[in-house]
Design a protein that fits this description.
The chain has about 350 residues and is mostly beta strands. It is built from two helices and 27 strands. The strands form six sheets. Strands 12, 18, 20, 21, 23, 24 and 27 form a seven-stranded mixed beta sheet that branches. Strands 1, 2, 5, 8, 9 and 10 form a six-stranded mixed beta sheet that branches. The longest helix is centred in the N-terminal third of the chain and has 18 residues, at about 15-35. The two termini are about 30 Å apart. The relative contact order is 0.20.
Length: about 350
């Protein structure tokens, strides 16, 4: 399912667009003026990259391609910029960080990112169309080793139809090496280290929509699945926000589903990211912080504390033996005089003290 970049839904904001554009441009000029030599550089695969371009020592060229097909039609990739807010960016989270890089691709989906050695997660792709922002999960890990000159992580194939999508990683190394050699002849000898999709969460044999009558739950515009009681969904003018809890090991509670149903609970750290077209950071799911399976009561008291002063997403799914529901989500609709927002697929969210 397409998902949001704020604590989870589709976001539309018209009101302060001009102000954001002007301030974003100013911020970019300041950042460029303050950047010094030797700092970490992350560069998207830009069509204008000159040939025979070498990669600085201590960095590797991580390359591959995104193939995006929507409703049977291959999509041309556009870059998100300060003055061109419509496009697609990849979100890559370093293993030791809480903020993801928003990285570019060229029109055909080719990417070439300069990254330092370390472990990374390709969280997914964020798509912005004017004031509408959508997020597509991929959740694939890859590594850059010391001494790597160039690393091929695969062709990421994404096929979507309506609200459903599939994502997979394909090995087309020969094509990738030929293409990347045209633009980065000085990158050095590449190695193949394909990104790997994260394993599914928990054990189950089948899945049904959380809106299926089997689970006994109501699905409406503002909620798909169980209704969270604590922490309750906190809403702002742009949808759900991170409500405060009073402990680093809070008790999560939700309204019960049908008789005989048990529950799975997942908590993820929120990963921040910043698009060139935005003045503030948005958030998406990052690393999995906790998972509990087959709970009988509609509540969970955490046995281990979470991190202090940290934003989290959480959700509940129903379980009947080896059949589970999809994860519960929130939704919203807000209308103001100069702006309106709507969304669904928003994760429940909270922030620790």
């Amino acid at each position: 399912m397409w998902m949001s970049t704020r604590p989870g839904g589709f976001v539309m904001d018209i009101g302060r667009l001009l102000e954001r554009v002007m301030l974003s441009a100013l911020a970019g000029l300041v950042a460029a003026a303050c950047a010094g030599p030797g700092e970490t550089r992350v560069e998207g695969g830009k069509p204008s990259s000159p040939p025979a371009q070498s990669v600085p020592s201590g960095e590797a060229l991580v390359f591959g391609k995104m193939n995006l097909v929507r409703d049977g039609t291959e999509v041309k990739i556009r870059r998100i910029t300060t003055f061109g807010p419509s496009g697609i960016a990849a979100l890559v989270l370093p293993d030791d960080a809480s903020t993801a890089f928003a990285l570019d691709m060229d029109e055909q989906g080719w990417f070439a990112w300069r990254l330092k050695p370390g472990a990374y997660s390709l969280l997914g792709f964020v798509s912005q169309d004017g004031n509408k922002t959508q997020f597509l999960d991929v959740e694939a890990g890859f590594t850059v080793d010391n001494g790597d000159a160039a690393v091929y992580i695969g062709h990421i194939n994404v096929h979507s139809s309506g609200a459903r999508y599939t994502a997979g990683i394909q090995d087309s190394e020969s094509e990738a090496i030929e293409e990347i050699g045209k633009k980065h002849q000085g990158a050095g000898l590449p190695v193949k280290r394909l990104a790997r999709r994260a394993d599914k969460i928990g054990a189950y044999a089948g899945m049904r929509s959380v809106c299926d009558a089997k689970w006994g739950l109501q699905c409406a515009r503002d909620l798909h699945g169980v209704s969270p009681i604590h922490p309750a969904v906190t809403r702002g003018i742009h949808g759900s926000t991170f409500g405060k809890v009073d402990a680093v090991a809070p008790t999560l509670k939700w309204a019960p589903a049908a008789i005989g149903v048990s529950y799975d609970v997942a908590i993820w750290e929120a990963a921040a990211y910043r698009l060139p077209s935005k003045m503030a950071s948005d958030y998406t799911r990052g690393r999995l912080a906790l998972y509990e399976e087959n709970l009988i009561a509609p509540e969970l008291t955490l046995s281990k504390p979470l991190k202090a002063r940290t934003k989290y997403f959480w959700s509940v799914r129903c379980r009947d033996g080896d059949v589970v529901s999809s994860w519960s989500r929130a939704g919203h609709f807000t209308f103001l005089l100069v702006a309106w927002t709507s969304g669904y697929g928003e994760w429940f969210a909270f922030e620790t003290p």
